[in-house]
Design brief:
By secondary structure, the protein is mainly alpha-helical. It has one domain. It is 77% helix and 2% strand. The protein is built from 9 helices and 2 strands; from the N terminus they run ααααββααααα. The protein has helices at residues 13-42, 44-58, 73-102, 108-145, 162-179, 182-191, 197-202, 204-218, 223-270, and strands spanning 149-151, 154-156. The protein has a two-stranded antiparallel ribbon with strand order 1-2. A hairpin with a 2-residue loop joins β1 and β2. The radius of gyration is 26 Å and the shape is flat. 17% of the residues are buried.
């Protein structure tokens, strides 16, 4: 019998529909990012001025400057600022599109369990980014500028470039913002049954070592920044354990309440 190529049959149509929907939502996400990028590019100077404030406050009054060593450096700095701000601005819409694609494949119980974590994600990221901007960066920059002075009869002066400063600011904001999502990750793993509260509590000493190491890797090499990241992360870890205890007690109570009617029905049928 000769081999024949067939058209897509009915069993493959749902997969094709999902791929078409995925493509449509990805296009919408990219379009939202492009629009947000364009808007932020128009206000790039204002956004850059906002990001410069922690460094400006760290310098003595009337001193301090940002330099650029390449003619095109400031142009690319503004592009990076616009892209970074555009992604932050469009993230709620992008997350909504991803949720709209995934949600139809979830049971109502799974949606109810996952949705609070999705809603908490931007708020936790914003909390971490705010801590970095309002507390950590001014403290770190003041500490860095404390090394200005003289050595060997020569003056040591800080002359940060715009590109290097932007990279440092983005490192601070992303490091603290992403790190503050630790409770979301732990609670999702717990709700999925991958880890238990007792396992995490037993591994507390290893978690402390991991958090301290992570803080040393993703923050600049000053002890203040590392400490300001490690302490909140450990507090968030302990808070996650408390929430896991609440969830475990609620699940146990729900299970007991579900078993009681079943037992009473069995007694009635026996009588």
């Amino acid at each position: 019998m000769a081999f024949q190529l067939r058209d897509i049959d009915d069993t493959q149509a749902p997969l094709l529909d999902h791929l078409i929907e995925l493509r449509s939502r990805l296009v919408r996400c990219v379009a939202a990012l492009v629009v947000a990028f364009g808007v932020c590019l128009y206000f790039a100077d204002d956004i850059l001025g906002f990001l410069i404030q922690p460094l400006k406050e760290a310098f003595p009054e009337g001193e301090g400057q940002l330099i650029f060593t390449k003619l095109y450096e400031v142009f690319f700095v503004e592009l990076k600022v616009a892209l970074f701000a555009g992604f932050c601005l469009s993230f709620p819409y992008i997350a909504n599109q991803l949720w709209a694609f995934v949600a139809p494949g979830l049971y109502a119980k799974e949606k109810k369990a996952f949705l609070p974590f999705l809603l908490a994600t931007p708020f936790l990221f914003l909390a971490g980014a705010s801590l970095a901007y309002f507390v950590v960066m001014p403290t770190a920059f003041t500490w860095f500028l404390g090394f200005e002075g003289t050595a060997g009869g020569l003056e040591i002066q800080a002359l940060p470039t715009a590109n290097e400063y932007l990279g440092l600011v983005m490192q601070f904001i992303l490091a603290f913002g992403m790190s503050f999502l630790l409770p979301v990750l732990l609670l999702l793993l717990h709700r999925a049954g991958i880890v238990t509260r007792s396992q995490l509590a037993g591994a507390r000493r290893y978690v402390i070592v991991f958090v301290v190491t992570l803080s040393a890797v993703i923050t600049p090499p000053d002890p203040g920044s590392q400490l300001l990241l490690a302490v909140p992360l450990l507090l968030l870890f302990e808070g996650s354990l408390l929430l896991m205890r609440v969830f475990d007690r609620r699940d146990a109570k729900t299970k007991i309440e579900g078993e009681v009617p079943a037992g009473s029905e069995g007694d009635q049928s026996a009588s």
